[in-house]
Amino acid sequence: MVRYDIKCPVCGTINRGLDLEETDGWMECEKCGTLAQQRGIHSAVMISALHSREDYFKSQKADHQAAAG
Ligand SMILES: [Zn+2]
Hints:
Blueprint: E1 4-7, E2 14-18, E3 26-28, E4 35-37, H1 41-50, H2 53-68
This protein binds zinc ion.
C-alpha cells in the first residue's frame, strides 16, 4: 500500500499518510476540511509498482558507486 503526504491547496497543511488509492485521489484536509483531488495518483502508483523495491536499491547503489568512482 502506498501512502501519500499531500499539501492542502487552501491552508497549506501537510496531510500525512493518506491512502489516495482507496479514495481515487481525493483527500480531506485534517485542518480546514477542504476536499481536493490529486491528479496523477494512478500514474504514480503504476510507476512504483513497475519498479520493484530491489530495483530501486540497485539503482541507488549504482548511483553511489558512480559518484564515488
Ligand atoms: Zn486545509
